[in-house]
Amino acid sequence: MASxxxxxxxxxxxxxxxxxxxxxxxxxxxxxxxxxxGDRYSPEFEECWQRIMATDTxxxxxxxxxxxxxxxxxxxxxxxxxxxxxxPLAVPTAGLPPTACPCFDLSNWPNLELxxxxxxIDSQATLENIRQRLLQKQPxxxxxxxxxxxxxxxxxxxxxxxxxxxxxxxxSIGLDLPLCQCPIA
Length: 185
Ligand SMILES: [Zn+2]
Description:
By secondary structure, the chain is α+β, with helices and mostly antiparallel strands. About 35% of the residues lie in helices and about 10% in strands. It has five helices and seven strands. It has helices at about 5-15, 45-55, 70, 125-135, 145-170, and strands spanning about 20-25, 30, 35, 40, 60, 75-80, 90. Helix 4 (about 125-135) runs antiparallel to helix 5 (about 145-170). The longest helix has 23 residues, at about 145-170. Zinc ion binds near residues 82, 85, 87, 101 and 103.
């Protein structure tokens, strides 16, 4: 069973690749743009989410998929990351693996040259996280730190800080989901 938060991430990821959400068995299709504004979901996305939740979720689904939003939120289904494109897809918790990822009809996906869909990042929390990790890497006070080693550690920290700040600029999707085990086609 996916949490509402995971379903929001699922929709947000695919919206960024142009997939729409179908409401009321096709009477309405929504594609909020932009999906992310700053470090949070956009008002357009939130409005769309409210709209989905206000309609019959048994009749709404992501374009190109068969699983309804109601199914995703039920125990028989869960979200995992596609082994081909690293984006979330729905699989039954028991039984056969999925036949296709929503990416199957996107001829230009996966495309390493395009920016990957992302989720809002809480920059405050991210910075705090980095600060904590850097603190852990510093030699503790009172511990004998030999001159050359201490210098190396500072260098390490700087390199880490650099790579971490790159993560902020281009954060990975940041979804906490298991990876699909099916063979890559
Ligand atoms: Zn995929």
